[in-house]
């Protein structure tokens, strides 16, 4: 099936009838608050993001409010969302928005791409979901839906330059409907056309190239991402100590947080310093970014 046979109306109607009532989708949510949600949702489930996002919206309703906060406080508030460098980049982004953009999130994709920590997906997501623009918003879920429904493949494979063009070709000409369809594509991939157990019986699309082809198996080798015992877990344990401290701590506090592998602990500590997530004081203590004094 080519893109011209993709039933846009069926997908949009399904989304308008069944879309999840997520707080960042509601009327009155600002572009800054949508930007925060998009950063938080990268590689993190909605159920973990929602309570943290609500706290951040109340605490930092505009970029200047976050920019005025210390880096360490932003890292504390990030909590267990994972990949904490996102929090530091968002703090830096807030500073640029406050100082160079009048405390407003730009509407233009190219300007958005120039902001700290804002990549191709996030820039287009903000332009689409905050400002209603007709731009392709391509994440893993969207790529999988297009691969299956249009190309008859079980998986999209590695990201490619053609992904944006292929997705844009599916969007309706009408700007408002195009923005809705971008959200609908993501919703379909997240809830129905999932990676491991697609619920084809509930799919709103009347035609799907993958189904027509007999649901051929994927030729993509999946890597099982473990967390237990990894450097990521070790980094998280060390950060937990500093997030819970009221000031810089001695090295022994960090050593006790990860005793299973001292070499791994040292590697994790070094990487946190390199990433700028923690700092060392002049007398050898350790603290969150911006709190070394």
From TrEMBL:
> Sorted alphabetically, which InterPro entries does this protein's record hold?
DNA_glycosylase, HhH-GPD_domain, HhH_base_excis_C, HhH_motif, MIG/MutY
Q: Where is the HhH-GPD domain?
A: 40-191
Q: Which UniProt keywords apply?
A: 4Fe-4S, DNA damage, DNA repair, Glycosidase, Hydrolase, Iron, Iron-sulfur, Metal-binding
Hydrolase listed as a keyword: yes
For this entry, the protein name equals Adenine DNA glycosylase
A Gene Ontology biological process in which this protein takes part is:
mismatch repair
For this protein, the record's Pfam families field holds: HHH, HhH-GPD
Give the coiled coil ranges: none
What Gene Ontology terms describe what this protein does at the molecular function level?
4 iron, 4 sulfur cluster binding; 8-oxo-7,8-dihydroguanine DNA N-glycosylase activity; adenine/guanine mispair binding; metal ion binding; oxidized purine DNA binding; purine-specific mismatch base pair DNA N-glycosylase activity
EC class: hydrolase
As recorded in UniProt, its EC number(s) are: 3.2.2.31
| Cited SMART domains | ENDO3c
Necessary cofactors: [4Fe-4S] cluster
UniProt xrefs under SUPFAM superfamilies: DNA-glycosylase (SSF48150)
As its record notes, the protein acts as a catalyst of: Hydrolyzes free adenine bases from 7,8-dihydro-8-oxoguanine:adenine mismatched double-stranded DNA, leaving an apurinic site
Does the record carry NADP as a key word? no
Belongs to which family?
A: Belongs to the Nth/MutY family.
Name the lineage.
Bacteria, Bacillati, Actinomycetota, Actinomycetes, Mycobacteriales
